[in-house]
Specification:
By secondary structure, the protein is an all-alpha fold. It has one domain (about 1-55): Eukaryotic RPB6 RNA polymerase subunit, CATH 3.90.940.10. Helix content is about 45%, strand content about 0%. The chain is built from 2 helices and no strands. The protein has helices at about 5-20, 35-45. The longest helix is centred in the N-terminal third of the chain and has 16 residues, at about 5-20. The two termini are about 20 Å apart. About 10% of the residues are buried. One of its GO terms (biological process) is tRNA transcription by RNA polymerase III. Keywords: DNA-directed RNA polymerase, Nucleotidyltransferase, Transcription, Transferase.
Length: about 55
């Protein structure tokens, strides 16, 4: 991970991605997991989620 996220940013990114997955978005990794939250956590760990954080 090239950027360090706060726990709030991390929670928002993973939560947003889990919602996308639960609504039918394509997965960005190959996994045997079914739960959208677990899949989002795995995607976050592999740094493949295409969500950025803008800071002032």
């Amino acid at each position: 991970m090239t950027e360090s996220y706060t726990r709030y940013e991390r929670a928002r990114i993973i939560g947003a991605r889990a919602l996308q997955i639960s609504m039918g978005a394509p997965l960005l990794i190959r996994t045997a997991k079914i739960d959208p939250l677990e899949i989002a956590l795995e995607e976050f760990a592999q740094n493949v989620i295409p969500i950025t954080v803008k800071r002032k």
